[in-house]
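Throughout this chapter, every protein is written as a compact record of paired, labelled lines. The reader may check this reading against the record printed directly beneath this paragraph:
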Amino acid sequence: MTREFSAGNYRFIPAVFQYSSGAVADDGYEIERVRFDQLVPLAEGFALAAKFIQEAGRPLTAFCACELRSPAAFSEEGFRAFNLHYVKTLSEWGIFDGTTNPVARSNVCPEIDPPSEPSFYAFSFTRPTRAKTPTFVIAGGAEAREGSGTYPERIVRYRELGPDALQEKVRMTTSHMEKRMAEFGFSWKDTTGVQAYSIRDFHHALADELVRRGALRSGLTWHFARPPVVDLEYEMDCRRVIREVVI
């Protein structure tokens, strides 16, 4: 089930308080993705995003997705503490109402040369368009089963790193992406960008779990980074965005 966020001119897939599972622009609007040339600390990134969005003539509620980088993987408790801090700005912008968060998000941890503090890599927002092409952003997802329970209870092949275990982790994560896109009526054939995040060698799973399923129609951007929670090993996100800029 998707929900409308009319203040931002997009629909979203409800998930948890810190992020949604994806956002799709309403008719008459498109999602624009803005990537920073260099990582920008969280507070500064929010300020620069606000400036960019407002200079485009859009309200701050048009902010619909972001891609973050953190210094290292969090414990489950540390991840919750970070998220409580992160959503404060979204509350101030009139996006997060204290319960529901429409903003899709990826937050990963570079293994080499990580930032010294949580930082922005990219953000997305909606803007008017005459084009009829739909645009969407699917939030990052890793190899944890959805539902209640701790991460150790939900992680597929918990703490296993063999080839079979990694292939199953990739398979689970790919399925998460497919399920989220299907909520909006899309599939891999609609994507313009797919990203993977892992420090493990998952090449043996590429052909069967990604290429044969159509996930790499536009190639794959692999970031040598860990998912945000300890013991997660593989994460993905994907999007259909026609307009992308680097600032």
